Amino acid sequence: MKHYPQACLALTLCTLLACDSTVPVAPPPETSTPDRPNFIHIFVDDLGYGDLSCFGATDIATPHIDRLAAEGIKFTEFYSASAVCSPSRAALLTGRYPVRMGINEVFFPESFTGMPESEITIAEVLKPLGYATGMVGKWHLGHMERYLPLNQGFDNYYGMPYSNDMESAVYLSGNAVDSFTVNQRYMTQTYTRHATDFIRAHAGEPFFLYLAHNMPHVPLYASPDFVGSSERGLYGDVVQELDWSVGQVLQTLDSLGIAENTLVIFSSDNGPWLVMEDHGGSAGALREGKQYTFEGGMRVPTVARWPARIPGGQVYDELATQMDWMPTFAALAGAELPADRPIDGRDLTAVLEGTGERADQGLLYIFANELRAYRHGDYKVKLPYRGFAGSPGMKAVAAHDTLLFNLKDDPGEQNNLLTSESERARALLEEMHREYDGLLPLPEQLVIRSPADRSHYDHVREYLARRDGGNSD
Ligand code: MG
Question: Is 194 one of the catalytic residues?
Fold first, then answer.
């Protein structure tokens, strides 16, 4: 982009000034404060619970993400609101269960729908307080102009409107196509450059940056610098490049003197796509992955750092969700939450500061418009499942009856307690249905994939059969 040379020059000058100065570099005036922090949410795609070294991976090195955890807080029981991309992203940005918006599946390039404009995003909540709002990366909430980030509270957008395996693998700049040819090998670098440019451009005011990498969703690509760098093949190389990207963001904050008042979050949109074998990630000790409501599909590795307010070295071992960021950011910035609609997330301020717990609340696991499971406290109940024989895009999973697990003792969901704790299961099922009924009435499914009319081909086939039949006589 044309402003890179200027940005690079600015950084060089900043670096030189910092090196030459004998006094600490003061943050610029009007910058963020503990009452108006910057927010950076780094969201990666299909990263599994077992794919970061701070979450137990021994064959992928993620020192920068590990540093966020060590200097901040690590969430070991953090959930996405869905086991697939679009609903997960809608929930993060609005703090609401995706079924409330009719978003139960993923949008495709042939979708002419998107997250309704009437939904209120984190960006829209922060903007009236003077926040600069930027998004870089994968949107996946509709590609028509009315659904794009600029119409949902973001001042800037650069990225791909869909998944990198879909036919719309283009880069948009704002609402317009910037490039029809995307070299995915350099995608993580490209996003990193745009993200750090945004930070530099807005260092003097509070900002919200949503950096949503397309990687490590298939097809996998790493730049030549990272190919062969890990002990987990190309998948590990890609994750290590994402970790490098986190390092670039942190370094940029440091160089600008704004790291202290910047809350940086790193998380994944859903679990690993296990059917992709060595090109999919690992859920670690958790059962199953993306597309399923076992823990591996929705429990995602999550860390957060904010030196001014989050004591370092914390581990939070209780339930929290991606929907919590909306009310949390609003509380921290002093913003008003929308009062005309339910917000399902809960404020995590006390959790971040190490002074309290998240509000006692369960989590509904919903997939493709079906209620599948519910967790409250240590226990999870899972409704009977008819099983799936498998397909090129989806792993086979066996049918099962109602399941009850104690997730503290059994995070891998192996030991069904339904018989031994049937009364607990009954009570949890009742609570689940009560919670779900509280969401009703739900809007119609918004992701519309109507079959095309192919009758003209039938007509031609019939015509040819008639003609050929006539010739043979
Ligand atoms: Mg995903």
Answer: no
